[in-house]
Amino acid sequence: MQHIAKYDRTNRQLPVGRRATEAARPRKPGEQERIFTTRVGLKIPTSLTYDRWEKAGQHIFQIADSSAWCLGDWLVYGQDRYADRYQTGVQAAGLDYQTLRNYAWVARHFELWRRRETLSFGHHAEVASLPPAEADTWLDQAEQHGWSRNQLRLRLRESRRGNRAALPARASQLRISAPSDRVQRWREAASRGDRDFEEWVLLTLDRATAHELGQ
Questions:
Q1: For residue 135, what pLDDT is reported?
Q2: CA 112, CA 152: separation in Å to the nearest integer?
Q3: Which of 62, 72, 66 is nearest to 111 (CA)?
Q4: With contact defined as beta carbons under 8 Å apart, do 57 and 64 qualify?
Q5: How far apart are the C-alpha atoms of 79 and 102, rounded to whole Å?
Q6: Residue-level pLDDT, tens digit, the chain, 215 residues
Q7: Which has the least CB within 10 A, 80, 108, 147, 157?
Q8: pLDDT at 172
Q9: How far is residue 55 CA from its own chain's centroid?
């Protein structure tokens, strides 16, 4: 179909279509540094300053961190209220259940009033398997000292190693036999999560136990 241009009274050609209109619209002050969000990503101007770029990253992280909590709360509600239709609801929303199980697991372990706004969802995930009082103590320390998630994980790891060294007689010994290929997959999973293999096994068993017991 032939494209027909439009003209105003001064014989200037008018832009046709949404993209042309946007291109012809005069820029507002400060708009050269504005980041536009789309369904598939960001439109970042080439003239963006470092300060604006840094603040944008902080804002995006806050949104992503909040989304983890919101999805976790949504899943917990569905588990409790619609147990018979829960899986159907998750599939209808286009969410991968296995990926989101961790969100629900952490959200269930932390009531809204126990969550720290100054700490990330990841901080809470690190201590979710601990008794509430102990988890709160670690979160208090992370908040006071400004620990990152990795720093909190390191402190927890050091504490666990210290406890095992101090109380060797009280530690229960558990031995299981498993095919080598499965053990290798477990080690790869622990490595990707930047965790000690034994620590990863214990944490995974804790999560599975909580899920099976409906905690």
A1: 93
A2: 21
A3: 72
A4: no
A5: 14
A6: 444 444 444 455 444 444 444 444 555 555 556 888 888 888 888 888 889 889 989 888 888 889 889 998 998 999 888 888 888 888 887 877 776 888 888 999 999 999 999 999 999 999 998 889 999 999 999 999 999 999 999 999 888 777 655 444 445 566 677 776 776 777 777 766 666 667 777 777 777 777 776 65
A7: 80
A8: 57
A9: 19
Q: Compute the C-alpha angle 106/94/70, nearest 5°.
A: 30
Query: Which tokens belong to 153?
Result: 């994980």
Token duo for residue 198? 């034994």
- For residues 115 and 69, the answer to whether their CB atoms sit within 8 Å is yes
Task: Calculate helix-pair angle for 97-109, 197-212, nearest 10 degrees.
Answer: 80
Is residue 72 within 8 Å of residue 106, measured between CB atoms?
yes
Asked if residues 186 and 200 have their Cβ atoms less than 8 Å apart, the reply is yes
**DSSP state string for 5-39:** -EE-TTSPEEP-SHHHHHHHSPPPTTGGG--EEET
Strands 41-43 and 36-38: antiparallel
pLDDT at 7: 47
- Rounded to 5 degrees, φ, ψ at 60 are -65, -40
Question: What is the spatial distance between Cα 13 and Cα 5, in angstroms, rounded to a whole number?
Answer: 7
Contact 59, 73 (CB under 8 A): no
